[in-house]
Design a protein that fits this description.
The chain is an alpha/beta fold. The protein is built from ten helices and 14 strands. The chain is globular and about 65 Å long.
Length: 349
């Protein structure tokens, strides 16, 4: 049975299954407007997920054909996966930050063989052992994740007050988890006057925040790297930490995330995540007392399970997260590459 929650004030959440993922589900939010309902994220592209989403929309008192638009916090398939199906069923527009829309377009255009070659080169440069590289060398055919994702037809601009008749919803750019991650701030008094609510008019310190994956009550989102080969290196963890500071200053009365459950005290949760990453960076500095390749650093880091129990694909994701942290340390001048090392090793400064 589909789980639907009425958050009052024309805001609903629909629990959409996330197959094969310990998170269990994505919370898709439905926002009523004078032009019809708008979805915030859509869930994974899977028949069971589609059934849950459509049943949830019905339980909210609407039909899929009524959906006016889709607002996407970011491009990941557990958020963007069903956007195309919603558009086909309703004619709804799809909006996303331009940076993530670019990733959607690049992914749709990518050839599997070229993608594997790029990943192989990246892992080899990181110092990955041959037993990890061998499956990529021998792989043939296959389809890349995200190749079927719908291309958005609108972009969400940072700070934009969206044209949703009868509602005040503002896009808050929060890069880090992805380059174009966006939270959406409902600048309206909380109907339940949740703890922490202040004031009645628009501005900081009130309203509700649809936080996507940026701010979750019990876990820290993955921070990886996204630039294409040849592009200048970015600092995604630095972007994420700055985005946490921005949301802490916003201090909404309640946060409606895309996973787990709603919560209050956004500023307190943001401070906890800032402290978590500072502690993690400090731990990496200690590991880098001796020179390590990116792969060696990844293996030595603390994860949510022992390294030998991490699946193959998840190890590649772990390398990207380790690289994001290592880049932050180099930007801060706390680590540097060892000159002449091949593969490149890094050590604390």
């Amino acid at each position: 049975m589909t789980q639907v929650t009425d958050h009052r004030g024309g805001v609903w959440s629909i629990s959409v299954p996330l197959p094969g993922n310990p998170l269990g589900h994505t919370l898709v939010h439905l926002l009523e407007t004078d032009r019809g309902p708008v979805l915030i994220d859509t869930g994974w592209d899977d028949p069971a997920s589609w059934s849950a989403l459509t049943a949830g929309i019905t339980a909210c008192g609407f039909a899929v054909a009524d959906i006016h638009g889709v607002l996407l916090t970011h491009h990941h398939p557990d958020h963007h996966g069903l956007s195309g199906a919603v558009r086909e069923a309703s004619g709804a527009w799809i909006a996303m930050h331009e940076a993530d829309a670019d990733i959607v377009r690049r992914t749709r255009e990518a050839r599997p063989a070229a993608w594997r070659a790029q990943l192989l080169a990246k892992l080899a440069a990181a110092g990955a052992p041959e037993e990890h590289l061998a499956p990529l060398r021998s792989a043939r055919g296959g389809e890349l994740p995200g190749r079927r994702a719908a291309v958005p037809d609108r972009h969400l601009a940072p700070g934009e007050l969206l044209e949703l008749p009868g509602r005040r919803l503002r896009a808050v750019w929060t890069p880090g988890h992805t380059p174009g991650h966006v939270c959406l701030h409902l600048e309206e008094a909380h109907p339940g006057r949740a703890p922490g609510a202040r004031g009645d008019g628009p501005g900081a310190g009130f309203g509700r925040l649809f936080s996507g994956d940026h701010l979750l009550p019990g876990i820290s989102p993955h921070i990886g790297v996204y630039e294409s080969p040849g592009e200048a290196p970015t600092d995604p963890l630095g972007d994420y930490l700055a985005s946490l500071e921005r949301v802490a200053r916003l201090a909404p009365a309640e946060v409606l995330p895309a996973h787990q459950h709603p919560f209050t005290d956004a500023a307190g949760r943001a401070r906890a995540l800032l402290a978590h990453h500072e502690a993690r960076l400090g731990g990496l500095v200690r590991l880098l007392a001796e020179p390590l390749t990116l792969w060696q650093l990844t293996v030595a880091m603390e994860w949510n399970r022992p390294w030998e129990r991490i699946p193959y694909a998840s190890r590649n994701i772990a390398v990207a997260e380790a690289e994001a942290h290592l880049r932050r340390l180099t930007v801060l001048g706390r680590a540097a590459a060892v000159p002449g090392s091949d593969p490149v090793t890094y050590r604390a400064v």
